[in-house]
Amino acid sequence: MSSTNPTLDAQGVSKKPLPISIKDGLWILLVAIATFVAWIDYRQYMDIYEVGILIGTGIGLIALGRMWTSIQPLMYWVAGLTLLALWTYSSHNNQITANETAFFLKFLVSSQSAIMWMNALFVLATATYFLALYQGSEYTGKVATTLTWAASVFGLVGMLVRWRESYLINFDYGHIPVSSLYEVFVLFVVITALLYLYYEQKMNTRAMGGFVLLVISAAVAFILWYTFDKGAHVIQPLVPALKSYWMKIHVPANFVGYGTFSIAAMVGVAYLITDKVKRTNPNSAFLTKMPTLEKMDDLMYKSIALGFAFFTIATVLGAMWAAEAWGGYWSWDPKETWALIVWLNYAAWLHIRMSKGWRGTPMAWWAFVGLLITTFAFLGVNMFLSGLHSYGTL
C-alpha cells in the first residue's frame, strides 16, 4: 500500500474532495468556534448583511483550509499572535498607549510593529529568492519561502490588530482596515504573497519567487515612504461613504484581482527573460533552473482567469455600493472609468487567448502592460485625478 495520500499532491494541495481527517476536523471546529465567538461578542454592532459576511468568511476559511492545507498553520500563527496583542491591550486597560510600553506590543505585535516586520521580511525574501535562483540551492529557496510565509503572518496580524486599535482610539473610528490607501497596500502585498505561495506549491518551483516578489517589494517601498513621509499609518475616521458593509466584500475581491494580475505580469517578465536566454544561449544553466515556457504561459493564463473572475465580482459589488452611497450604479468617475479599462484589457487578453490561441511572447508582454494599466487605475488615478473616490488621494 502506498504511503502517499492519493488525494493530495506533494505540496498539500487537494486534487479532489477529501475525507475529513482529524487535522481537518480540528480546523473546522476551531474556525466554527471562532466564528461563533465573534458573533456572540459583536452581534449587537452587526446588521444582517455583516452577519452574512461573517458566516461566509467562516465557511470560506473552512473550504480554503481543506483545499490548501498549508494555510492552516499560517492561520494558527496569525490567531496566536493576534490574541497575544489583544490580551496585552486588555491587560493594560485597553489603552492604545500600551503599544509604547508593553514589550511584545512595542516590538512585535502592535499593528505598526507587525507591518514593519512584514516589510522587512518581504524584502529579505525577495533577495533570498534571487540568491536561491543564482545558486540553484534548494535550501536557500526553502528559506525564501519561509520568509514569505512569515511576512504574510505578520501582515495579517498587523491588519487584525489595527482593526482592534481603531476602536481603542475612538469607537467611532472603528473599521475594518481596508479603507485607506495605506491599508489596502498592506492588503495587496499579503494577498499577492499568499496567491504566489499557492502557485509555488502547486507548480513545485521557487524559481519565479524573486520576480513575483519584486512587485511586493515595490509596494513595500511605497508603504515605507507613505508611512515616514506622509504619516499615513495613523488611524483616521472613515468618510461617510465608506461606512458600509459593502467595503468588507468589495475591497478584498478587488485585491485578489490586483494580486493575480501582478503575478501574471511578473511571470510574464520571467517568461520573456527565459525565452531570450533560450534563443541566445540555449546551453545556459539558467534554463535548467526555470520552469518550462509552457508552464509559465499556463500560469499566466490561470492567474489572469482567476483575477478576472474576482475583479468582475468586485466591479459589480462596487456598482451596487455606488447605488447605495451616491444614488447611481455608474457615474463615469475616474476610478470607475479606469476600473472598466482594466476589466476590458483582461477580458480582451482572455478572449484572444481562448479564441485565437495566442500564446507565449505577445501574451507575456500584454500581461506586463496590463500591470502598468492596473497600477495607474489603482494608484495613478489617486495621484493625478479627482472624483467621488477622492478620499483615496495621496
Describe this structure in words.
The protein is 74% helix and 0% strand. With 394 residues, the protein is an all-alpha fold. The chain folds into three domains: 6-69, no CATH class; 73-238, no CATH class; 249-394. It has 13 helices and no strands. The mean pLDDT is 90. One of its GO terms (molecular function) is heme binding. The chain crosses the membrane at residues 25-42, 48-67, 114-134, 143-161, 181-199, 211-228, 255-274, 299-323, 335-352, 364-385. This is Cytochrome c biogenesis protein.
Please count the beta strands (DSSP E, at least 2 residues each).
0
Average the pLDDT over all residues and give the rounded result: 90
Question: Please, how many helices?
Answer: 13
Task: Please state roughly what percent of the residues sit in beta strands, choosing from under 5%, 5-15%, 15-25%, 25-35%, 35-45% or over 45%.
Answer: under 5%
Shape: globular
Number of separate domains? 3
Give the N-to-C terminal Cα separation.
61 Å
Largest sheet: none
Structural class: mainly alpha
Using only C-alpha atoms, the radius of gyration works out to 21 Å
Helical amount = over 70%
Low-confidence runs (pLDDT<50, min 5 residues)? none
Topology as H/E string? HHHHHHHHHHHHH
Membrane topology: Multi-pass membrane protein
Subcellular location: Membrane
Pfam families: Cytochrom_C_asm
Domain Cytochrome c assembly protein: 179-389
